[in-house]
Amino acid sequence: MQKSLTTNGNTWQLYINKPIAQLIGVNPNEYSVSLVIKNKTLFVEKVCETTVKENLCVKKLIKRSAGYGLNLPLPILELLDINPEEDMIEVNVDENRLVIQKANI
């Protein structure tokens, strides 16, 4: 699905609805997710013990109305080659993680 990012202070935010968050294993008591970037693609998945041991980037989701918000700072968007003011992003669920990349329009 294609989505746009919204501004949130000095970061950009992606809205994730509850059913999508549940597909990747986020529960109401734990909002932490890990971020991994490979080949201009961002992988977002639930934090587990191996994630903490590998010292990957861990972010907290923000509770937003009927879902969650994921704040993405500009350096992460630059690594993904995304201009949040002009580009749309493609969000897919692959097994138990979100796959986020620049949409091909």
| Coarse morphology | globular
Distance between the termini: 12 Å
Specify the CATH architecture.
Ribbon
Specify the CATH class.
Mainly Beta
Strand content: over 45%
- Percent of residues in helices comes to 10-25%
Biggest sheet architecture: 6 strands, antiparallel
Low-confidence stretches: none
Please characterize this protein's 3D structure.
This protein is an alpha+beta fold and 105 residues long. The protein has one domain: Pemi-like Protein 1, Chain: D. 16% of the residues lie in helices and 48% in strands. It is built from three helices and ten strands, in the order E-E-E-H-E-E-H-E-E-E-H-E-E. The chain has helices spanning 18-23, 49-53, 74-79, and strands spanning 2-3, 6-8, 11-17, 32-38, 41-46, 57-60, 62-64, 67-72, 89-94, 97-102. The chain has a six-stranded antiparallel sheet with strand order 1-9-10-5-4-6, with no helix packed on it.
